[in-house]
Amino acid sequence: MLRAVGKSGQPFRLSTPDGALDSLRDRLRGARWPEPLLDGAGWDLGTDREYLRELVAYWADGFQWSAQEAALNELPHYRATVDGVGIHYIHVPAATGSGFPLVLSHGWPDSFWRYLKVVPLLTDPAAHGGDPADAFDVVIPSLPGFGYSDKPRAPGMHVQRIAGLWDTLMTGVLGFDRFGAAGGDLGSAVTRFLGLDSSEHVVAIHRTDAGLPLLRVEPAELTDEERAYLADVDRWRAAEGAYALVQRTKPQTLAYALNDSPVGLAAWIVEKLRAWSDCDGDVERRFTKDELLTNITIYWLTETIGSSFRLYHDAAQIPMDQHARRVEIPCGIAAFPHDIAIPPRSWAERTANIVHWTAMPRGGHFAPFEEPELYAQDLRAFFRRYRGG
Fold it and tell me: Most distant CA pair in the chain: distance in Å?
């Protein structure tokens, strides 16, 4: 049986402390705005000042968090202690009552928010033009240090350890003996380690990105396509990668600023949502103000921007030889054209048994939110052959 038979977590509801929203609005209205560093720079030097002022004004006097919180609470939220760590997760059973279990792992700077649009498409495909046989039991945990999960204090909370937590959550808490896994960004790395370390339970994995390259390959062994990819990665890191260096090397210093200033927090997150999505420079082509601010407000109210940086800092504790291991269970990749530095299939095949590769017509790094229908269709198609057994 694929349905959960173990002890489940405790039901959980999102709630906002008294006075938290009034305090937030006071900070937004009293922000001290810097002068533009260069007239007419727009987004070239970071978050555009005029757009940010517009977004902040709406956050202070238009955005209704209470309505967003109520909508989020329509989903079944839980918390469970997993290997000593309190984990928040959403668990939506299949509408058919017999779906295939699937754990979805988010990344940074998002949250469980990344998957909100695909939940109904995956749990009830028949209601959205799909085959009811493709229904999933969907589990969406919040990474440690994100949202409503615990903030880790001890060292070593990296993506490989989180993969172990997810295995325990799915098998020991929810009682699934076999399941699939999918993810993007940091969640892609978590998913990869689920495929490496939990193959007795994980039947297949699906990723929307293969991650920035950590594998070391002799230059003479590279194809021309792989050389072009690595050069593209170098260009991206030089132009866009400073955030990761700060979050990896000096996360506490950055946390003081962003935990104290909602304007700074919004600037830090919105800039990435714009840069990494298929929006042609207009972030609201992909995300409404309400959608942007829902994700940002989760970070603000839970005070987790600093703790979210821990995954960057603790990544160095994963031995380099772990990155060269090859995932032998079936792996699928959905390559969205505006994602970060898309690798050729040959590169991905160096460390994974790629049996499914979809070149998507549109979409970016936040694929489940940007293109939920395309994403859901690809998950259905990939996992269809692995449901039985």
Answer: 63
Q: Which residues 6+ apart lie within 8 Å of 243 measured at CB?
A: 268, 272
Q: Read off the pLDDT band of 218 (50, 70, 90).
A: confident
pLDDT of residue 389: 59
Residue 208 forms part of a structural domain: yes
In three-state secondary structure terms, 182 is strand
pTM recorded for the entire structure: 0.96
- Structure confidence at residue 1 (pLDDT): 29
Indicate the number of domains in the chain.
1
User: Inter-axis angle of helices 262-275 and 251-260, to 10 degrees?
Assistant: 110
Cβ contact 208:184 at 8 Å:
yes
CATH number for the domain including 283? Answer: 3.40.50.1820
Residue 134 lies in a domain: yes
How many angstroms separate the CA atoms of 172 and 193, rounded? Answer: 18
Domain holding 300, by residue range, is 10-35+46-386
Does 40 fall in a domain? no
In a domain, 219, yes or no: yes
pLDDT tens, 86-143? 999 999 999 999 899 999 999 999 999 999 999 999 999 999 999 999 999 999 999 9
Omega prior to 109 cis, within 30 of 0 = yes
pLDDT at 4 over 60: no
Per residue in 134-149, is it b (16+ CB within 10 Å) or e — as a string? bbbbbbbbbbbbbbbb
E-strand spans in the chain? Answer: 10-12, 77-82, 85-92, 100-105, 136-141, 179-183, 202-207, 327-335, 352-359
Report, as residue numbers or ranges, the catalytic residues: 185, 312, 365
